[in-house]
Amino acid sequence: MKSIHHCHWHTSVHIHGKESLYGKTAFLSTGLECAASLRVNVKTFRIEKARWEVYRGPDGPVSADIDGLMGVEAYLGSGNALRQAVLEDWGEKALSLVSETVRGIIQAETFVYMERGYEDAKSYDEYWERMYLNTCRYYSNLDRISRRWEEHVADQNRFSNFFNRFKSVSVAADGQAFLAHASLSDSFHEVGLSLTLDKGPGTVTSVFCTLLRAPDAVCFEADGFARNLLGKRLADMSKKEIASALAGGQGCVHIIDICSDLAATLRDLP
């Protein structure tokens, strides 16, 4: 078995002064190293400063502000605004890392909910239960959960750092097969996905998926949906198609996320 490609992402969010959060996602792969960063107002989540940097790779070096993101809210529903401000001038990779950073900032909101205007943890939980209803295994089965989100994070002590996420994808080749692995470990979740793919048609021939950490026992039921990838040409699937195969709102958004990362990596292989 010969390793042929690696990708790594790291997202972190911490307090910046008294009024802002600073989030950054760094990406390293065999052929590229780059990062996107955002500074947002802690009360409004409006972007105060955005930066794109390429340290190593065919399009580098780059170090520039993304002025079009100024004032955009780094929150749910910002996808179109992010795309309009980033894609044309800076490309798909910059857009993907800005989006990763926004998702990290949204996760960090758990620890600044009072600054965001919520009275207490319970009211913040109730907001998410309304907003995210039927979007993932947890929020599609609220009648079955044994603990609420506020209980899941209750034992975490946060001082200046509010969120960390590591993701990785690796691909190895062995004769007529690829062995691909994707993983995610963040402040609240941990999941791994391993696939074997036929090298010729690129179809998935074996799947192994495990959730190691999640908010509730109901979440762990979602790893079984990974078997739906068997026989599929993963590199040809869009994120929407992957989400559908992995049970959509009854599945795990983090499994969908790393599976999409894996599909994109397979598409980029020489």
The number of helical elements comes to 5
Mean pLDDT: 96
The CATH class of the largest domain:
Alpha Beta
- The percentage of residues in β strands lies in 25-35%
With strands numbered from the N-terminus, the spatial order across the biggest sheet is 5-4-3-2-1-6-7-8-9
Q: What count of domains describes the coordinates?
A: 2
**Unreliable stretches, pLDDT < 50, 5 or more residues?**
none
CATH fold category name of the largest domain: Enolase-like, domain 1
Q: What is the number of strand segments?
A: 9
Please state the overall shape, judged from the principal axes of the Cα atoms. Answer: globular
User: Sheet bearing the most strands, described?
Assistant: 9 strands, antiparallel
Radius of gyration: 19 Å
Q: Would you tell me the structural class of the helices and strands?
A: alpha+beta
The CATH architecture of the largest domain is 2-Layer Sandwich
Termini separation: 17 Å
Helix content class = 25-40%
What string, H for helix and E for strand, traces the elements in order?
A: EEEEEHHHEEEEHH
Explain this structure to me?
With 270 residues, the protein is α+β, with helices and mostly antiparallel strands. It folds into two domains: 2-111, Enolase-like, domain 1 (2-Layer Sandwich); 161-268, Enolase-like, domain 1, CATH 3.30.390. It is 25% helix and 34% strand. It has five helices and nine strands. It has helices at 79-108, 121-131, 149-152, 239-245, 253-268; strands at residues 2-16, 20-29, 33-41, 47-56, 62-65, 161-174, 177-186, 190-198, 204-213. Strands 5-4-3-2-1-6-7-8-9 form a nine-stranded antiparallel β-sheet, covered by helices on one side. β3 (33-41) and β4 (47-56) form a beta hairpin. The longest helix is centred in the middle third of the chain and has 30 residues, at 79-108. The mean pLDDT is 96.
